[in-house]
Amino acid sequence: MTPDLPVIALGSCLVEMTPQQSGLDLTRADEYLALPSGAASNFATALARLGVETGFITRVGDDELGQWLLAKLNSFGVVTEGLAGAVEGQLTPVSFCWMDQAGAKRFYFYRFAGYCDPMASLQAAELGPETVGRAQIFDFSEATIRKQPLRDVTMQAARNARAAGREVAYAVNYRPGSWQAPAEQIAEVQQQAFALANIVLMNREEALLFTGARDPTEAATAVAAMGPELIAITDGENGAYVYGEGESHTVAARRVEVTYDIGAGDTFHAGLVAAYLAGLPPHQIGRVACDAAALRISRCADMQSLPTWQEVEQLARQPL
To answer: What radius of gyration, in Å, describes the C-alpha atoms of the chain?
Structure first.
């Protein structure tokens, strides 16, 4: 089967409410901006904005918010037909978030046990080779492996993609409070995900935690030994470390004025995958990813402000 999409992402999706005026906390805000959110949703939207046709496997509630989410994703160019759907009897999750002038972020998640977890309905049969094999790259995020039975469904989907001759990308977005397992088991699950992937993305803290390494370079080497060929480790204002083709590269962060620092990691993830698909070498892949994230945080929350490939290319040519 020939892939008809460059990327298919798997992950949850929710409605995020954030103050219309940046820097206001929830006690002072009267107007809010509604956004499709969740790490995988942010990634899919950012990748579509970069010009990569992206499919998104997700489940939403059988309510007006779910209808709004899928319509909004479609308006941004994300492909959901035949991949995403609403689950009867479930509500769509909602979150509120805000960022202060110093860049500190706070999130509040509104989910109701048994009524607000549409992703839990996903079955392994829905993610067979004929579905995940539609894309050159099958991408999954950590939120899909935190709990059973979705963990086994996701891991099998990644195996199906590999068996179909496709590549797999995995992004860690570790939320300790969302796990109900001892640290040793969490690390073991993460390493299982690493071993299924060709591309792995994480931040510095995650890299050291799940490999036991002393620095990002050592961590990247440890992850590469598990099988991945391209590893990216983000480090905030210090930039990123990219390992590929047997070499490690340090990529400096671009200094920008921060306007909205939510979703930067997901946009980095999108830039990384877009640059990889474009056939760029590892150090240039890192540069594109860092510049995509820089453009994201320098703009307002609205998804229409996500960078395009042309804007990232233009910025990448400018001196740091």
So the answer is: 18
